[in-house]
Design the sequence.
């Protein structure tokens, strides 16, 4: 059986000196692209995980925290809620790039 491919990848990750070495960001963050339909659920999951989240009209989402230990909590919460994300449907009018947040 072939392994499922990830649906998205991050476009930026920074650990903000948490593991040593130079970094451009002052706090740990992960940035990625998301569909408009996912934003409300992503915000709810981020709040429960104790991380902050911002997004823009281009579909770029940034999740950040002042404690890098919150990032695995966010990742686990995403996996726990995967069925909710999978259950979202996308309208035909939002096909293509126009369905980004």
Sequence:
């Amino acid at each position: 059986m072939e392994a499922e491919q990830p649906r998205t990848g991050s476009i930026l990750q920074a650990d903000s000196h948490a593991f040593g070495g130079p970094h451009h960001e002052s706090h740990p963050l992960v940035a990625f692209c998301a569909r408009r339909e996912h934003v409300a659920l992503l915000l709810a999951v981020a709040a429960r995980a104790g991380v902050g989240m911002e997004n823009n009209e281009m579909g770029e989402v940034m999740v950040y925290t002042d404690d890098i230990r919150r990032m695995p909590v966010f990742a686990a919460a995403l996996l726990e809620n995967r069925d909710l994300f999978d259950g979202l449907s996308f309208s035909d009018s939002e096909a293509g790039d126009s369905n980004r947040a």
